């Protein structure tokens, strides 16, 4: 007893100190914790599908279920962040705001700590306050869309809560893979693709992979991305397109594992050729194979330090349309463009001014040594290329995050025009094309936010 009492005394003092310090001795790195959860978000047939303005009726079946999935990460200091991935076209601003407000109120998660990413599948549902001019909705369809959106909102808040409950000790590992089925749709004619001797860019073929291992060293979750439009399928059946098939392949190969896909800066990239289920399955297998290769090779082990930063920067519009401009669009042969112009004319007659700018979300996470940049909107591939030139080739870039308000063209695409640079604003109901400063504004804001997150910057 005389030999053991000093040891017991020291242990007692240590336990008291630990309790006062919040349960953790100073300097003791407990490592990462992670929790995952998933929920089916497949609507019933009868709801309109988002994407492809030529669609003329609601969905009539399901190819495979749509999912929302959450990965909660917690570092050694208790700092948390959550990535929510979904088989959706993207989150419109109002829905995103409601979800993030609830996550703040319930779980003390700030906007900086939340990423809501849509895979941008064109085989998912239309959401409330999005694409209002594209489809000839009847009043009953508007009500169905509002009801589905409200249910989705509740599901995602509960999903994050479930992921928080499921936290356990893990290790995180990161690496970029590669696969090459994306094709720059602006610079390659899909109709003659099989005859082209070479494909023109720009392209960025990275497959970012984040591996989550539990305390036993078993795979718990894998998060991966790719920059390419999920527009292989154009039927009336719900599906996650190639990204959905990739997740199914990985979860089949690793029973009990949750696979989460996030969309990159693929606004001007298509999987070509397309339009058949076997092609969507093929691209899904190719993407899953790229992830499997990365998982099987050495990956960078990430230290348990998490920093997050977020801001919203004003992107200005070039100019507001005049009444004459809108009257001219009403003569368009494209139905949604006519509906867009008529709605805008009605707004003019009511004396409601058009917005001159838009609050655009920019977000940076640092997971140990791994930078993750997320941007709102349909971001073209040049942004990913330039962000990797600034922050390094291992940087993960996610677009379609937190708010999908329209296409985000580079300076080059804006100057060249075409759908992504010139006419797509009508799809999203924006008053005008973006001003010529858009690229410089976004890149400067990313650098500013990255500094707040502790990333080395120019």
Shape: globular
Biggest pleated-sheet summary: 9 strands, mixed
- Beta-strand fraction estimate: 15-25%
Order of helices and strands: HEEEEHEHEEEEEHEEHEEHHEEEHEEHHH
Q: Which percent bin holds the helix content?
A: 25-40%
Number of helices: 11
Mean pLDDT across every amino acid position: 92
Task: Report, as a whole number of angstroms, the end-to-end distance.
Answer: 62 Å
Gyration radius from CA atoms, angstroms: 23 Å
Pick out the low-confidence regions. Answer: 1-30
Question: How many individual β-strands?
Answer: 19
Which structural category fits the helices and strands?
A: alpha/beta
Polypeptide structure, described:
- This is Neutral/alkaline non-lysosomal ceramidase N-terminal domain-containing protein.
- Residues 35-257 form the Neutral/alkaline non-lysosomal ceramidase N-terminal domain.
- The chain has 458 residues and is of the alpha/beta class.
- Helices cover 33% and strands 24% of the residues.
- It has eleven helices and 19 strands.
- The chain has helices at residues 5-20, 93-107, 139-165, 241-253, 277-296, 323-329, 335-349, 381-391, 411-416, 418-423, 438-452; strands at 32-40, 61-62, 67-74, 80-86, 114-118, 168-178, 182-184, 206-214, 219-226, 237-238, 258-263, 269-271, 300-302, 306-316, 357-367, 370-375, 378-379, 396-398, 407-408.
- Strands 1, 3, 4, 5, 6, 8, 9, 11 and 13 form a nine-stranded mixed β-sheet that branches.
- A hairpin with a 5-residue loop joins strand 3 and strand 4 (80-86).
- The relative contact order is 0.14.
- The model is unreliable at 1-30 (pLDDT under 50).
